Amino acid sequence: MNHYTVGMAGHIDHGKTTLTKALTNIDTDRLKEEQERQISIELGYAPLKLNDEMEVSLIDVPGHERFIRQMIAGVAGIDLVMLVVAADEGVMPQTREHIDILRLLGIEQGIIVVTKMDRVDEEMHELVELDIRETVEGTFLEDAKVFFVDSKSGVGIDQLKTELAHELAGLSSRDASGAFRLPIDQVFTVHGQGTVVRGTVYEGVVKEGDVLEILPQKKSVRARQLQVHHEPRQNGRAGQRVAVNLGGIGKDEIKRGDVLAASGHYEATDTIDVSLHTVAELRYSIKQRSAIKLHIGTAEVYGKIVFFDRNELTEGNEEMVCQLRLDEPIVTRRGDRFILRRPTPMETIGGGTVIDAHGQKYRFGEETVRTLEQKKAATPEEQFQQLILEKKLLTIKEASNSVHLSEEQLAKWMDEQAQFIILPTGEITSEKVIQSLRESIEAELAHYHLEYPLRQGIKKAELVQSYLQTYPKKILEWMIEEGGDKQWLTLEGPYVALGSHSPHPPEKWAKRVEHVMKAIQEEDLQVSPVFEHIQKQQIPQDLFEELIHYFHQQEILFQIDDKLSIHAEPFKQAIREMKEKTNESFSLQEAKEVTGLSRKYLVPFLEKIDKLGLTIRQEQERRWTDDYEQEWLYKR
After folding, report:
1. What UniProt keywords are attached to this protein's entry (predicted)?
2. In the chain, what are the domains?
């Protein structure tokens, strides 16, 4: 079963509602006011039975100029339009405006239906058709077939149905593979059932029991029951006219223009980049940041238009890229069609497509225009590649929403390309992003090692922080761990270094540092303060702390108090001798006899080996621990 939506368009009182009833046997003027005044005010809907392979929803839109917003909401999601013209009046102002709106919304398929044929003779038939042909010349209706019908007597209705079936058979049914989205055009309550919303499904599939959300409010709801033209269904899909009974929300919390959507797949926005095509004739110029009224899906929102290559739009039939900054958030995505109108004096400015649903602030000038033109021309795949270079890291949902490809289509294309990386978190990045980040990290660490050769490396938190403005934290942390696994990075405690780096004194001072180490080693256990040795070698004072930290970190020296540090060799030798010459436990006096140290050096020495876990102090004695056999103690 293929699902289609057919819309009516045309001037007021040209017989759209009567034609709808002739085709469907349903009167879509359901409001008391509509029936009393004999004009359509709200959108009307009816199922149209053509054959067993098609399920068709017919939308009857108001023809009066005061209800143009309802008309736009009605035709925004249609597959084919029937342009209705009364034989006794011919083309009228709203006929022309409706044609303009249909063209701007990108409608490509249509049939022209001349109603009230019983009111005119054959000669008038020819004149009306000629008038229509002149009006639609150069539009998508230029080659459309013209049918003359009398909706009340039924003359021509069967032929029209046959042609509708033929035209629709040549169209592809709506793709239902994307995330579910239904712009709401009706909200009401049913006694005993609660809140019901209705609309045409733009994309995806909805099932009974699905957890959805109302946007832009981000209100979570559940689809309790579904109907398609008053018939219960287990699911609804793209192209169908669906009513959804919602749990978890009241009628007064929803309005026309809101969107019912799959949870987590769509984000509201108030800044959109667009490609705008203006109507053939503008009655008034449009100045920079002029007030506009945007009609998109079933929503209508006020805002401002921002140009990047001009300060005023004066000519009609222009095509340009620009930006719309809205007073309220909407839900849209790339490729959606829209209509732009002037709030006052009321007129249609133009229409077009959304280039980017989440526009940024750009500079005025040709560079921005070129960027937006490139974005407009890009295929979904090219958009994705560019997007991932900009964002660095995306979820499959974010990517799908941004480039108007379903998650399945995107995943399949990524598999074919083999140039993308999926992190353990499930998020996507590209090899280009990773390579660029690796080169940046390598360059930064190489510079850091050159400037601070004595240091183990840079602290991981510091390295991550330095890139947070350009890269997401997740990708930075993954990159560092990956670098450690592949050994182009060395990870030691909180420090990160290049795999090829080992801390060393600056070449300029390397010889003098050797003299410092040798002098301290020769002092054995009764050492002078380290900084005195460094001073004697006339090493710059700004290296003192770095150098002392290097000695300790590399275990060249072992610090026994704030000022004193013993060279590793005599320090280890003294521990080994003590172990050989004492029992399982020993006293301070025994340690003094073995080492020959005065109390000034002995107490901090013993406290140091306590800290190293070699001994444990028990009252007046110390006991050797099982950790005495540590490997470092026997390294030369």
Report:
1. Cytoplasm, Elongation factor, GTP-binding, Nucleotide-binding, Protein biosynthesis
2. 2-169 (3.40.50.300), 181-262 (2.40.30.10), 269-375 (2.40.30.10), 379-504 (1.10.10.10), 507-634 (1.10.10.10)
